[in-house]
Design brief:
binds 4-methyl-5-hydroxyethylthiazole phosphate; alpha/beta; TIM Barrel; 8 strands; eight-stranded parallel barrel; binds magnesium ion
Length: 212
């Protein structure tokens, strides 16, 4: 039996040119607003930079019992002592990641088609990320979006929780959750917000069906 992980509001980082203090302040505010899990995803940073950021983030998140996931890099997740890793289709496979990180690690994988999902479901994963749900400016090298109908079908097919990612904001989050998703992963809805705490809080309210 898998342990349950709160995937409901999943923050994916985008540091850009933010200083470390400002970056951590945004993440702290978002967690105070209701973010339940954080993925460190810094595509342009070196391994050392990601490790340093990861260690700083772990110091922030551990006492709050918010899991820290590292994007792509199993070696960095291990070096940081993070709670898990988020794999893409061209990273180490799930069995290899599990062998390195151990039974307790949280392992998620992005799936861009039902075929990829069917293969992932055979593995020892904790969640699938349906990528992308909608077009998004944050990641332009995406596959064809799942859309709401595709997401619904995936959620019916998958015995694992499905996190929806890509183009999700406070205006569409309710529809996404109604498809059966366990949660939503967000970059711009939090990092572009003037108040990340309010943005996260509003997202939670909208997920629950409140009208803003
Ligand atoms: N993977 C699929 S879409 C995406 C990632 C990392 C970016 C999501 O960003 P946003 O700003 O929440 O659309
Ligand atoms: Mg990846």
């Amino acid at each position: 039996m898998k342990r349950s992980i709160d995937l409901s509001l999943y923050l994916v980082t985008r540091r850009d040119s933010l200083g470390i203090a400002e970056f951590l302040t945004i993440i702290r505010a978002a967690v105070n607003g209701g973010v339940t899990i954080v993925q460190l995803r810094e595509k342009d940073a070196s391994a050392r930079e990601i490790i340093n950021l990861g260690k700083r983030l772990l110091l922030l998140l551990k006492p709050l019992e918010i899991p820290l996931i590292i994007n792509d890099r199993v070696d960095i997740a291990h070096a940081v002592g993070a709670d898990g890793v988020h794999l893409g289709q061209s990273d180490l496979n799930v069995a290899e990641a599990r062998a390195i990180l151990g039974k307790k690690a949280i392992i998620g994988i992005s799936v861009e088609s039902l075929q990829q999902a069917e293969l992932a479901i055979e593995e020892d994963v904790d969640y699938l990320a349906a990528s992308p749900i909608f077009h998004t400016k944050t990641k332009t090298d995406c596959a064809e979006p799942w859309g709401l109908n595709g997401l619904k079908q995936l959620c019916i097919t998958s015995e694992y929780p499905v996190v929806a990612i890509g183009g999700i904001n406070e205006t569409n989050v309710r529809e996404v959750m109604d498809c059966g998703a366990a949660g939503v992963a967000l970059v711009s809805a939090i990092f572009d917000a003037s108040c990340p705490k309010t943005a996260a809080h509003t997202m939670i309210r909208r997920m629950k069906g409140y009208a803003f």
